[in-house]
Protein backbone atom coordinates (compact mmCIF):
# COMPACT_ATOMS: atom_id res chain seq x y z
CA UNK A 1 0.00 0.00 0.00
CA UNK A 2 1.44 3.31 -1.02
CA UNK A 3 1.21 6.05 1.59
CA UNK A 4 0.24 9.39 0.14
CA UNK A 5 1.70 12.50 1.70
CA UNK A 6 -0.68 15.21 2.83
CA UNK A 7 0.52 18.72 2.09
CA UNK A 8 0.07 21.37 4.79
CA UNK A 9 -1.98 23.61 2.48
CA UNK A 10 -4.89 21.13 2.64
CA UNK A 11 -6.15 22.78 5.83
CA UNK A 12 -9.02 25.13 4.94
CA UNK A 13 -8.62 28.81 5.88
CA UNK A 14 -10.19 30.04 9.11
CA UNK A 15 -13.10 32.47 8.50
CA UNK A 16 -12.87 35.98 9.94
CA UNK A 17 -14.39 36.68 13.34
CA UNK A 18 -17.88 38.10 13.11
CA UNK A 19 -18.47 36.40 9.80
CA UNK A 20 -21.97 34.96 9.56
CA UNK A 21 -21.01 32.64 6.73
CA UNK A 22 -21.57 28.97 7.60
CA UNK A 23 -18.57 26.71 7.03
CA UNK A 24 -18.87 24.40 4.03
CA UNK A 25 -16.92 21.35 2.98
CA UNK A 26 -14.11 22.56 0.75
CA UNK A 27 -12.38 20.59 -1.95
CA UNK A 28 -9.38 20.22 0.40
CA UNK A 29 -11.53 18.52 3.01
CA UNK A 30 -12.97 16.28 0.32
CA UNK A 31 -9.43 15.36 -0.77
CA UNK A 32 -8.48 14.39 2.79
CA UNK A 33 -11.67 12.38 3.13
CA UNK A 34 -10.98 10.64 -0.19
CA UNK A 35 -7.38 9.87 0.85
CA UNK A 36 -8.57 8.35 4.12
CA UNK A 37 -11.24 6.38 2.30
CA UNK A 38 -8.66 5.07 -0.19
CA UNK A 39 -6.39 4.03 2.68
CA UNK A 40 -9.22 2.10 4.35
CA UNK A 41 -10.12 0.44 1.06
CA UNK A 42 -6.48 -0.62 0.58
CA UNK A 43 -6.37 -1.94 4.15
CA UNK A 44 -9.51 -3.99 3.54
CA UNK A 45 -8.07 -5.38 0.30
CA UNK A 46 -4.84 -6.29 2.10
CA UNK A 47 -6.87 -8.16 4.72
CA UNK A 48 -8.85 -10.02 2.05
CA UNK A 49 -5.67 -10.96 0.16
CA UNK A 50 -3.93 -12.32 3.25
CA UNK A 51 -7.07 -14.23 4.27
CA UNK A 52 -7.25 -15.77 0.78
CA UNK A 53 -3.63 -16.92 1.02
CA UNK A 54 -4.20 -18.51 4.44
CA UNK A 55 -7.36 -20.21 3.17
CA UNK A 56 -5.53 -21.64 0.14
CA UNK A 57 -2.80 -22.96 2.38
CA UNK A 58 -5.35 -24.52 4.75
CA UNK A 59 -7.02 -26.29 1.83
CA UNK A 60 -3.70 -27.81 0.89
CA UNK A 61 -3.22 -25.89 -2.35
CA UNK A 62 0.29 -25.25 -3.60
CA UNK A 63 1.04 -21.92 -1.89
CA UNK A 64 4.47 -20.75 -0.86
CA UNK A 65 4.72 -20.46 2.93
CA UNK A 66 6.95 -17.41 2.54
CA UNK A 67 4.30 -15.63 0.46
CA UNK A 68 1.68 -16.36 3.13
CA UNK A 69 3.89 -15.04 5.94
CA UNK A 70 4.85 -11.94 3.95
CA UNK A 71 1.19 -11.26 3.19
CA UNK A 72 0.24 -11.60 6.86
CA UNK A 73 3.05 -9.32 8.02
CA UNK A 74 2.23 -6.75 5.33
CA UNK A 75 -1.37 -6.75 6.50
CA UNK A 76 -0.24 -6.40 10.12
CA UNK A 77 1.90 -3.37 9.27
CA UNK A 78 -0.93 -1.77 7.27
CA UNK A 79 -3.34 -2.34 10.15
CA UNK A 80 -0.94 -0.80 12.68
CA UNK A 81 -0.49 2.27 10.46
CA UNK A 82 -4.27 2.66 10.19
CA UNK A 83 -4.59 2.37 13.98
CA UNK A 84 -1.91 5.03 14.43
CA UNK A 85 -3.72 7.38 12.06
CA UNK A 86 -7.01 6.74 13.83
CA UNK A 87 -5.41 7.45 17.20
CA UNK A 88 -3.97 10.75 15.94
CA UNK A 89 -7.34 11.78 14.50
CA UNK A 90 -9.12 11.00 17.78
CA UNK A 91 -6.44 12.88 19.71
CA UNK A 92 -6.81 15.91 17.42
CA UNK A 93 -10.60 15.80 17.78
CA UNK A 94 -10.35 15.70 21.57
CA UNK A 95 -7.89 18.60 21.51
CA UNK A 96 -10.28 20.68 19.42
CA UNK A 97 -13.15 19.81 21.75
CA UNK A 98 -11.09 20.99 24.77
CA UNK A 99 -10.53 24.42 23.20
CA UNK A 100 -12.37 27.25 24.87
CA UNK A 101 -14.32 29.53 22.59
Topology:
Layout: H1 27-58, H2 65-98
Helix pairs in contact: 1-2
Descriptive overview:
With 101 residues, the protein is mainly α. It has one domain. Helices cover 65% and strands 0% of the residues. The protein is built from two helices and no strands. The chain has helices at residues 27-58, 65-98. Helix 1 (27-58) packs antiparallel against helix 2. The longest helix is centred in the C-terminal third of the chain and has 34 residues, at 65-98. The two termini are 40 Å apart.
Keywords for this structure?
101 residues, 2 helices, single chain, 65% helix, mainly alpha, 0% strand
Strand element count: 0
Structural class: mainly alpha
Poorly predicted sequence stretches spanning 5 or more consecutive residues = none
Describe the sheet with the most strands.
Answer: none
The number of helical runs is: 2
Sketch the topology as an H/E string, one letter per element: HH
Rg for CA atoms:
20 Å
Q: In whole angstroms, how far apart are the ends?
A: 40 Å
Q: Approximately what portion of the residues adopt beta-strand conformation? A: under 5%
* Nearest-integer average pLDDT: 81
CA-based shape: elongated
Count of folded domains: 1
Fraction of helical residues: 55-70%
